[in-house]
Amino acid sequence: MTDPKDTINIENVVASTGIGQELDLQSVAMDLEGADYDPEQFPGLVYRTQNPKSAALIFRSGKIVCTGAKSTDDVHESLRIVFDKLRELQIQVNEDPEIVVQNIVTSADLGRNLNLNAIAIGLGLENIEYEPEQFPGLVYRLDEPEVVALLFGSGKLVITGGKRPVDAEHAVDKIVSRLEDLGLLE
Amino acid sequence: RLRKWQERIRTKDAGERNLQFALSEIDRMASALGVPRSVREVASVIYRRALKEDLIRGRSIEGVATSALYAACRKEGIPRSLEEISEVSRVERKEIGRTYRYISQELGLEMRPVDPKKYVPRFCSELELSEEVQTKANEIIEKTAEEGLLSGKSPTGYAAAAIYAASLLCNEKKTQREVADVAQVTEVTIRNRYQEQIEAMGIHG
DNA sequence: GCTTTAAAAAGTAATCT
DNA sequence: AGATTACTTTGAAAAGC
What we know:
The structure holds 2 protein chains of 2 kinds. By secondary structure, chain A is α+β, with helices and mostly antiparallel strands. Chain A contains 4 helices and 9 strands. The N and C termini of chain A lie close together (12 Å). Chain B contains 10 helices and no strands. Chain B is elongated, with a radius of gyration of 20 Å.
């Protein structure tokens, strides 16, 4: 039996940072190749990196959001690229700005099919949301770690809302033990 | 003094008018859906509770009224799909679904997932299918759901597939299109659910 | 509340061949 | 009847309406 923890895969990391400098997004949009900027639609400028693949939202305040990276290392690498691009445009960027991970999305596999109907009742209807007419996943909110898990009939799941990779591991452990206690795993 | 008093009257009247509007909307939609009076009463109670708990702030009265009716139909065991509900409401399906999940959570309605069998009598009668087909469809739903096939699947599509399969087994064939139309799902969904169900039942179609 | 970004899960749906 | 594309859900940040 594979430990479900070993099946955890980070799918997306969202992080925020700032260059400590105000920006004229209009001119950045002109000079930065591949930049998407439509202030009518959204106040941030979108800049995509290819390697690693990610999207950076750059704001007038100099604050930046990076999303789409597959690891915290990739987030740092992506943002390093963004910082260098801005420096090429003669923009002052702090030495190494603090990068804060805001959310990590992971997927995992419990290795067994799940009876979501039984799980909904077993975990307590007040603690879950399961509306298969609207979405096939069962939404389970954990208190510790404070994350949200989406459980599917296939036994696969998505965990989001955590800030550290270990949050997903703890969440999987808790979910597995709760389902085992209820006799709903297997 | 007098001003405050008048303002209170005005607010009270406005609140009263809003409640009347919501209740008349519930009545109008319930009539259009042809659900019994008991369901309208349950919907009214849910709406009043939502009002009392201040859940309407930031949401439309129509949206909460529609969601209350959707919840009431389910509670009373005669569910209408979000698709059907949205046809008699001016609120779109997505918003009804969101609002329903919100009030359901906040009011602690503890709603159980919809049992596809609950759709069988109504869909079958619209298709003019016999009691025998209904019984067979229920059997298919019961057995395949026990095997875990229901997880994550929409109740209407699941019921539609079982009814389609039962109509074939009982020599009262309805086409996938006919069943899809009354259940408001696509033929593709019926086909997919049907294949899984007959396989699980050990039937060869 | 909304707007935008990215990614996974699985179901449903629209559209085209 | 496939195949494709796209939309549903979860989470978080950013600035502005």
